[in-house]
Every structure is written in structure tokens, then in C-alpha cells.
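Data card: per-record layout.
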Amino acid sequence: MMRVPRFVPRFPWLGGDLQTLRNYLRPPGDVLAPWPGERLSFPMRDATGDELLAMLHRPAEDRGKPLVLLLHGLTGCEESSYVRVTASNLLRAGYPVLRLNWRGAGPSQGLTKGFYHAGRSDDLAAAIAGMGSELARNGLAAIGYSLGANVLLKYLAEKGGLAHLRAAIAVSPPIDLHAAQQRIAHRRNRRYHDYLLERMRAERAPDSPIRTIFDFDNAVVAPANGFRDALDYYAQCSTAGRLTAIRTPTLVIHARDDPWIPSGSFRSVEWNKAKAVRLLMPWSGGHVGFHAFGLERPWHDEVALRFLASRF
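The structure for this 312-residue chain is written out next.
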């Protein structure tokens, strides 16, 4: 059994909000400078002609370790601070890393006909299928964050024993999308809500007068992707009820004080039936925060490295 270090928040980042905001208040520098990147693209399987763009980094020495895919969250991309920090920690440990951008995100903004959403697991499957034997020669693992973590869990559940990943880590996944939407829309989260909505509109509907994330999902995301409405989108793409179908060894990491995603979503899951999935839910850590006392890297990166070492 992998030993998990106890999470103790690092002063002064106490409480879920400060844990969440530290990524923005203290952005990392050029942490990937020692490992130059190589631009890759992966064509999608539909008729749009869209491609997913990615940045590949290799460690200084090839230690035969698996390639780790990093999957960003809502309004993020390969340049998101949490993605770059995790990439640097993995590379330092000898893992090659692929920072994948979802359809229409980051460097592909304005270059695709379609856009990502919380259930677009087919895009992940297409990217994995397009990697070829050279990239995947030592196996594949993946770490997803927030929306990207939900996509990862959905892919794993749909593929079951046929998934091409040998290990997976889902950090702060919104496994109940409707519950997460309701939480972010709460009055105490108004600044988070407005920040995300502004970035969502900038990605795909810059002139839209839409004033809530629910209305955006209802008017933009759902009809563009074949869902009846926002509630249908949430129901079809949430992963809380799918976790028992996962066969790949998987860690799910969620903080009880996550201000964006309610812990009740995780307490309602019958984890004893999800045999391949282990839940880690410390009392603090915020949303994709986990800035811990005594650790130079985020706690979720420390746990991920220990988990990968136990699998490979």
C-alpha cells in the first residue's frame, strides 16, 4: 500500500480560498526552462478537421519511465500554473511529459471548429490513439485537473479494461457537474463565478450577454454538442455514477474545503464498489491547491509521484 503523507497547509495559505488562490497570487517562473518543449498535434476523429495541440518534454536522461499526460481544467491550457509546476516535478523525477490542450484551448484558440467540455472523452481517446508506439513505448499515465480530471475519469469508465492508461490521477474533479455549477453560482463564490464566466466567454462567445455559467452551458455548450440543455449535459457527463466501471489503478484527490466543488458529491459515491479507484480527501487543500507545510512541491504532486512509483 502506498504511504500517503498527511496534508498540513502551508502558512499563510490557510483555508480553501487561499489554497485555491495561491496559484494566481504566486505564479511560478519559467520552471520548464531546463526541458525544452516540442510541439505536437493530434487530429480528431470527427469531420471538423480539428486537432489537439500539445507540448512534449523529455527528461535529461531516458530512464524508461512512462509518458505522463497532463490535462488542464476549465479555461486553462498547457500554460496553466498547476500544469507547468507538475510537469517540472515529473521531469525532475525522470518522466517524459505531454501537456495536452483541449479542443479550442490555449494555442488552438480560434483554430478549431469545436470546443472542449467536461465530457469530451472521445478527444482524449483520439489523442491517445494518435500517439503511436514511440511515444507510448514505456506506457502511458495521466493526471487531470478539475474539468480535465472529469474527462479523464469518464474516459477510464467508458474504456474499462481496454483503457490505454496504466495509472491515472484525478485532482479536484467535478464528478457531479450540476452540484459543482450550483456551488460556483453561490453568492460567496461570485468572484470565482464571474472570473470563470469572463474567460469562458472570451474563449468562444466574446460578444455574448450571458451572465451566468448555467446560462452559458445552456445556450452555448449544450446545443453545440448535442445535449438537450445544461441539465442534460451535466447528467450525461458527470462521473460520480461511473466510477465502478474503471479498471485502471486511479487516485481521486479532493479537498473537503474546496470552494468550487462540494464534498457531498464524493460522500455519495460507494467507493467500496469502485475497486480500482482510491479516494484521498484531506480536510484542506482548496481547488487544485494543496500547498503543504514541509513540501517544496504541491501535495498532490508528491502523492502523484509516489503513486506512479508504486505502479511502474
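Known properties of this structure: The chain has two domains: 16-176+242-311, 178-237. The two ends are 14 Å apart (CA to CA).

See the next section for split statistics.
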